[in-house]
Amino acid sequence: MNYLERRVIHGMLLLVGVSVLCFVFGSLAPGNFFDEMKLNPQISPATVAALRSQYGIDEPLPLRYGRWVKSVFRGEWGYSFAYNCPVKNLLLVRARNTLLLTTLATLLAWLIAVPLGVWTANRRGRWDDRLGLAGTSLLLSVPELVIALVLLYWVVRTHGLPVGGMVSVGFDGLGKEAKLIDIVSHLVVPAATLVLASLPLLVRHIRASVIEVLQAPFIHAARAHGIGGARVLFRYALPAAANPLSSLFGLSVGALLSGSLLVEVITGWPGLGPLLLEAAMARDIYVVVGAVMASTFFMIAGSILADILLVVVDPRIRLGSI
Amino acid sequence: MRNRRRIVAALSVLAALHLAILLAGFVAPYDPASQNRDFPFAPPTRIHFVNSHGHVHLLQPFIYEWRVRPDSFNEYEEDRDREYPVRFFRQGPEYKLAGLLRSHIHLFEVEGSAHIFLAGTDAYGRDQFSRILYGGQVSLAAGLLATGISLFFGLIVGCVSGFYGRWIDESAMRLVELFLVLPWLYFLLAVRSFLPLHISPTQTFFLLVAVIGTIGWARPARLIRGVVLSAKTRKYVIASRGFGASDSYILRRHVLPQTYGILLTQSALLVPQYVIAEVTLSFLGLGLSEPAPSWGNLLSNLQQYNVLVSYWWMFAPALALVIVSLGYLQLANAVHELQSG
Amino acid sequence: MENEATAPPAFVPPLVRAVGLNKRYVQRAPFSQKRFVIDALVDVGLEVAAASITALVGESGSGKSTLARSLAMLEKPDCGEIWFEGKQITQSSDKELALLRPRIQLVHQDSAGALNPRFTAAQIIAEPLEIQRRESGPRMRLRACELMEEVGLSASWADRRPLEFSGGQRQRLAIARAIALKPDFLILDESLSGLDLSTQAQILNLLLDLQSAYSLTYLLISHDLSLVGQVADFVAVMYRGKVVEAGTRKDIFANPRHAHTHELLGAVRLVESAFRTAQAGGRQ
Known about the structure:
The structure holds three protein chains of three kinds.
Chain A: H1 2-28, H2 33-39, H3 45-55, H4 61-74, E1 79-80, E2 85-86, H5 87-122, H6 127-141, H7 144-158, H8 176-214, H9 217-224, H10 229-240, H11 242-267, H12 272-282, H13 285-313, H14 315-318
Antiparallel strand pairs in A: 1-2
Helix pairs in contact in A: 1-13, 5-8, 5-11, 5-13, 6-8, 7-8, 7-11, 8-11, 11-12, 11-13, 12-13
Chain B: H1 2-22, H2 24-27, E1 47-48, E2 62-68, E3 76-97, E4 101-110, H3 128-164, H4 166-181, H5 184-194, H6 201-215, H7 218-232, H8 235-242, H9 247-284, H10 295-299, H11 305-310, H12 316-340
Antiparallel strand pairs in B: 1-2, 2-3, 3-4
Chain C: E1 16-28, E2 35-48, E3 53-57, H1 64-71, E4 79-84, E5 87-88, H2 94-100, E6 104-107, H3 111-114, H4 121-132, H5 137-150, H6 167-179, E7 185-189, H7 197-214, E8 217-222, H8 225-229, E9 234-239, E10 242-248, H9 249-254, H10 259-283
Parallel strand pairs in C: 3-8, 3-9, 6-7, 7-8
Antiparallel strand pairs in C: 1-2, 1-4, 4-5, 9-10
Helix pairs in contact in C: 4-5, 4-6, 5-6
């Protein structure tokens, strides 16, 4: 537990560092939200000036950072100029949506990747392995952007699934079951994109880990005892490969989070991605910082999760002999 | 050796693509900004080898001009009244080859008032094929330059950190950790958002390059630091010290050559990633904006529903992107295997 | 506690003199709080007479290599003094050390590791010349080839990489590199270990030839007393970081006083008797 506590503290320090980094970069920028506002002829210069002083835009950087930190402790996480509310309100909802999408996609991806990886590892060098390698290479080269667009195109042409957003019009009037189906049907395209984008690397890593494990003597012994193919693979080999795989799991969660931004924007899924994009366009600086911190938090949480998984899954670490 | 064949294949495809893009002015039949308002969203021109008399002329392809179908307002059909042969190496609109030489000669074109739209047109009737080539200049250049920046900083930080150790190393590695834990696209957007939105295309380009380059220096830095650390403790480095070698001598003669391998593989990995980063930024509207073409803003047309559904040729820049990715990935794999082999 | 060598006449000061050297290494095992303390040198004193061959023997871990590195100014001892030609060098500034370096050279134990595998033989030998800017361009390569010939390697191999040479040839390369700057004092750290007997003999002969050609002073470090005892004038024995015995070769071999010296000598006698038995057996 000592190690875990240290990791959590380490993670929190990293978050602090990230927030400082964001603020520093922000201070390098000429112009801000209110410059854009000034261009709007409907808002009087006096209003702009008043708003500027209210939000302390012209104060020196450390002062602004201090204010923001205080706001964080108050639970507000800064103030959004565009939405006119504390950033926290925006973050919570969007983060929940992103988390929903990403966890689903991660689970699905692993559900597909593990059997694929184990299978191709077993059939190493044979034609189906080669096919798999070529396929993953190809898929790896297709950027997420393109996958999303292609999937969108296909869905639109077949008129099968709803496109865009998380819920359809008239959602509130639906029964509980129908609501669930509605959300799930909106999840399909973004989740599928994320799954396809992350599959190739996952399959490759799993395959590599399993190949290594399959070289071990105890596998040969199991086979010599007549234990059947699938059983050997999944009951003997896979658990032994759990060590590198659980680290991979934690990391893949983080990577998926970085990737989900684009997918959310393209498919209209209301997560952290579109929020950040909007705020970026509007120079809504505290929202930007909040969104970056939220996603970084997920990355760090993912890697800590990986460490926890490692301890749970690998008895050697628990018993302290590593 | 299969590896060598792969490298040669990947290199040739990449070289051909890069060359075509570098010589965009020559390969493209039209200026990327020239509009043809009569042909909005025209599909790719079909190239024919068999003429109406049934003769096959493999070496003399020709086209039919598009004509709006009389019963619709946005569907096209071929105007079979006249054949326009495709001609090579003829004079056309002037351009500057790679920004330096002025020339008139284009790789191929059709005479007269006909148009050859190899990849169709967009809403303004601009030839997509030409735009893809010119857009490639931006996207590829951004990727290559940003890779250079990342590797440059990564090399410096990695060398200094690994070589001089102690507090320099500690603080540098903390910074590396920070940059590695940031989800890169989020950070990219955030940094881009902090910078001015309405600036000239050239400025945008260099800004993009700088921003993208500063995202990815961390991983190369860490890898190079590892190499420097292990090189530093080698006996022959200690022996050099015994001869009175200065730090800079040891860095130059013994340590730096060890980093070439990593630099090579990292560049093959980073270039496609950075090209995709530029494309993504431009796609989202935070990169290069109209009218300057980039694969990103060419693809952003697909965000409109009607374009996505009806005009499949607008996906063409995606194909170019995939080819670039594939090529560099194969290269990276092959180089990696070569080194560890 | 020092046993000083008795042979050199009082009016010729030793070339190198070390007094009261101490060096302690503290290692922390990763991820734990445990620390390992290694006392590599404990109050070590040594004298090396000019134009002589001094052997430094001891088992692994006795501190021989640490002493070698300290004498070669590659490591600073925690405390103690080192004198070279009557001048204190432990407190010298980097500038003064830089002037001294060409005169004290160390040939490492691990010849494969001590030579950069990407360099050619000529580049390796020329490296000290390049660093010290003694020569340049074609003259440098010429000098490198000369040195190769001197140590018994054919100059036609100048463009080969170290791994293309055998162990013994690599040692010759290392020696050639070490004498490139015409040093006065040469420390050879286990340079003969891992070579077969005949190669060892050849290298020893080479060293003797070089000594008379360049009037070198050697410090031969080894765990093998029988080997270095053949050519040494003086012998010092180290055990667990301390110099436990020192004297002329005759003294040490005839009247060993410390238990460890007995052990090392015992090994010698064992080898000798085994050799004689083998010879006798062979003839029958």
